[in-house]
Amino acid sequence: MGLRAWAPGRVNLIGDHTDYMGGLALPMAIGLGTEITGDRGGNWVMLGSDGFEGVAEIPIDDPGDPATARPPWARYVAAVVAEVRPVDGLVGMVHSNLPSGSGLASSAALEVAVATALGIDRVNAVAAAQALQRAEEAAVGVPCGIMDQLVSLAAVEGTALRIDCDTLEIDHVPFPDDAEVVVIHSGQHRELAASAYAERRAQCEQAELVIGPLRKASPLDVEQIDDPVLRRRARHVTTENQRVDALTSALADGQLGYAGELLVASHASMRDDFEVSTPALDEIVGAVRGVPGVYGARVTGAGFGGCVIVLCRPKTRLNMPVVWRGRPAPGASLGLT
Ligand code: GLA
Fold this sequence. Notes:
Strand content: 15-25%
Shape: globular
Structural class: alpha+beta
Bound molecules: alpha-D-galactopyranose
Distance between the termini: 6 Å
Mean pLDDT: 97
Number of strands: 13
Order of helices and strands: EEEEEHEHHHEEEHHHHHEEEE
Strand order of the largest sheet: 5-4-6-3-1-13
């Protein structure tokens, strides 16, 4: 009997570029993701893909340096094998309906799908996510936070996942019945994202050398930073953390107008203080704001291109390239075929 492992992509409702600074994030799983079908056994993890060329062939007793695995997508497979260290191999296929390079966490979905197929302990979702966060860095050198892997593993249908990235406590926040999220693609594939991402993280760490942990910093602390770039970066992280708590309450209370304003404020902070938006993303956010039924919109994920999320009344018509729409989807699963 074969297996079927599924791992969803995600959008982040709010709380971007906060996870790696021990801040707060509020992502939700979407209904697009990555599936692996196959059979366990043997000494290799051997996977084909309907979206990427070549075959990933990773020996389970010696996965080697993941960064050097080929074809390029096999780096993620090798890094997951190196973390999970399965006793049995896997022969199968990767199918994905999640566009890559769109800010919807397709690499995390691949990692979680491989790890799920290899039997990682998903009950301990935080430990599993930490292992896959290490895998991402080993595979492609991106010093990412824990958000993408954790929400793909731990999401519960109908709820967003509030993550405190300092304590690693998670809460499932019910999503209002009378709202949905629409994901719109800017048409911009994220480029240079890895180096720009690492640079932003380094700037936040430099700001911490001046005023201490950003998750505890006040607006007054932030104004003590002389360097204007570091001050802006710190201002984004500190105000974004506040917005995560504000949005969590707004969703719980069904205050959707206020929730939408928080998304728009977050977008402005990503654009002006963190400088990770693009004119195409700004244009989409501006254009949807006037549409009846729309509460608010913002870039989602790391930025530098990718997607905008729109919070709106269900079935709101948007004349835009919609990638997905709906309410929070469930997290990873493993079944038999
Ligand atoms: C990427 C990373 C996450 C997070 C976001 C920005 O998706 O993988 O850990 O830092 O960017 O919020």
